[in-house]
Design goal:
Bound molecules: glutathione
Helix content: 40-55%
Shape: globular
Order of helices and strands: EHEHEEHHHHH
CATH architecture of the largest domain: Up-down Bundle
Length: 195
């Protein structure tokens, strides 16, 4: 199974992290982002959106880190990571949406501005980050994990960009429940860090 990957990308890291947690080997294909390899023919044929990560598993080709997590969990991770019970699966889905919406447009974009020079509204990203980090912190005050009372793909989807908020100029020290949750994640068997 191949992952077209960028080491600094939190979206790619989600996939690497989850594959490691479920002990599923990935063949990592580094993409030369600076040379814009993701916009060249070969990768555009796999994902016409011109984005990574891309997962290739035989005939199956997938884009979008959340969708890839769901695929891997269904196929290789099992019930523990992607519950089949309707309300638990919906709980996990709530957090996958948070990863691709509130996290993407808050902490992730703040990092793109500060670390990679993206031109965008930084104060708006800070306000969005403050809101979503407070909501997550409040949720974790009464829950060890984001969904289903256990580690699931929800945690793998939300964790990466929160673990590197400092690169976007956001300090998470005051969010003590988030700190404790991140600590629990780093203690999961086969945990790997971003770099
Ligand atoms: N929703 C997608 C977003 C993927 C994405 O934006 N990837 C970035 C790297 S982290 C990318 O390839 N950007 C290239 C571009 O926007 O041109 C996901 O979760 O995988």
């Amino acid at each position: 199974m191949k992952l077209y990957d960028l080491d600094l990308s939190g979206n790619c890291y989600k996939v690497r992290l989850f594959a490691s947690l479920i002990d599923t080997p990935l063949s990592i294909i580094p993409v030369d982002f600076v040379r814009r390899e993701h916009k060249e023919n070969k990768l555009m044929q796999l994902n016409s959106w011109g984005e990574i990560p891309i997962l290739e598993d035989g005939e199956v080709v997938l884009r979008d880190s959340q969708a890839i997590l769901v695929y891997l969990a269904n196929k290789y991770g099992g019930e523990a990571w992607w519950p089949s019970e309707a309300h638990l699966q919906a709980e996990v889905m709530q957090w996958l949406s948070v990863a691709s919406n509130e996290i993407q447009h808050g902490p992730n974009t703040a990092r793109l501005i500060k670390k990679f020079g993206l031109e965008s509204d930084y104060s708006l990203c800070l306000a969005r980050s403050e809101r979503i980090l407070t909501l997550i912190n409040d949720h974790l005050a009464n829950n060890n994990w984001l969904a289903a009372n256990r580690p699931t793909v929800a945690d793998c989807a939300v964790y990466p960009y929160i673990s590197i908020t400092h690169e976007g100029g956001i300090d998470v020290d005051k969010y003590t429940h988030i700190q404790a949750w991140m600590d629990r994640i780093t203690k999961l068997p086969n945990y790997i860090s971003l770099l």
